[in-house]
Amino acid sequence: MPLRRIKLIAWLPLALALGGCNFVVLDPTGDIAAQQRDLLLVSTLLMLLIILPVMGLTIFFAWKYRASNTAAPYDPEWSHSTQMELIIWSAPLLIIICLGALTWMGTHLLDPYRPLDRLSAEEPVPDGVTPLDVEVVALDWKWLFIYPEQGIATVNDLAAPVGRPLRFRITASSVMNAFYVPTLAGMIYAMPSMRTELHAVANSPVDSRGFSSNYSGAGFSQMYFRFRALPEADFQNWVAEAKASDAPLTRAAYLDLERPSENVPVRRYSTVDATLFDAILNLCVEPGKMCMSDMMAIDAKGGLGLESVGNVLPLTYDKHARRGTVFGGAPSYVVGICTPEELSTALTLSAGAPAGARSAEPVRGAGLPFRTLTLPTSASPLVPISLPASGALAGPRRPSNS
């Protein structure tokens, strides 16, 4: 067999391996992704300006100053060259300055929270054009997309009109994921009880795939969704198909969808609870749970004191253990004041309170039976206070002398 044919056969495995490559990152359809591609290419070329000469000179010096080359100059006392020092230090310094400038500009111009000011390099965003809002929820292990403007929702199916700015509001239901559509824009994380944003635009029709680029458990490898950039008429047809579905996305339907599942087929919902995304973000989709925003508002005011005694179960977001699994804990109850110093301050304040200022209404728990305890205060020796008859923390007690 000729040597030429043997070389061709030797290259065949490499050709087969490259045949499975997808250059979608280098061939995007969105302006943001195109700018990120350009940043990647320019940065690579700048670094190659150093890497290639160094690799070439390494081979050149090894060949020229080999032991068998007696014609090469031999100077064992050589130790310094000003010209060589200038070349060695100036070239990398200039490249670092260029890379720093590119990174600084790219960090600000391609900030995912920054609204778009252009649709492409030649076309600014027209006046009066508003972005299409898409609310994204990373679930275990599928993606939920809510379209507030259209009043629909889909699972593992994302569509957008060509040429209209997109504004994604992204969160997660349990663990952290990363929302990534290579043809559209860069990656951004999806985290529970937090909201991230991403602005992007699709400049031409495309049918591609998005996925999670952050490992999130057993079903991570199948956590893909379809992304399509469609002409306006086709996008409206896609919306009409979703509206034709007879499945509404209520809170109860979401709680069922939220349960971990793999290889979930595309689903469409004709209507969506308008408050669902904010409830997901604030961890209060399940009935009876206090929203995180309300809890933070109470904490910002210093709490509500003894009058806020209540069941802490609505404050606990444990969506698996609290839904019937064997690891679910029993309800617990909290009463503050917790420290003798706080109790002493409260007693001092109550001593100067006018008669009748303290409510005689018993402190109520979550429907548990009551028992009456007597606690001393400075206003009166014994004041009856009703507390839940549970084994939990019972409330302010007399400071001990120990």
Keywords:
402 residues; alpha+beta; Immunoglobulin-like; five-stranded mixed sheet; 8 helices; 19 strands; extended; disordered C terminus
Report what the structure shows.
Its main location: membrane. By secondary structure, the chain is of the alpha+beta class. The protein has 3 domains: 21-65 and 81-110; 120-281, Immunoglobulin-like (Sandwich), CATH 2.60.40; 292-348 and 362-388, no CATH class. Helix content is 31%, strand content 21%. It is built from 8 helices and 19 strands. It has helices at 3-18, 31-64, 82-109, 232-243, 251-258, 276-281, 292-300, 340-351; strands spanning 118-120, 123-124, 132-139, 142-147, 152-155, 157-161, 166-172, 177-180, 188-190, 196-200, 206-212, 224-230, 248-249, 267-269, 271-272, 310-311, 333-334, 370-375, 383-388. The strands form 6 sheets. Strands 10-7-3-4-5-14 form a 6-stranded mixed beta sheet. α2 (31-64) runs antiparallel to α3 (82-109).
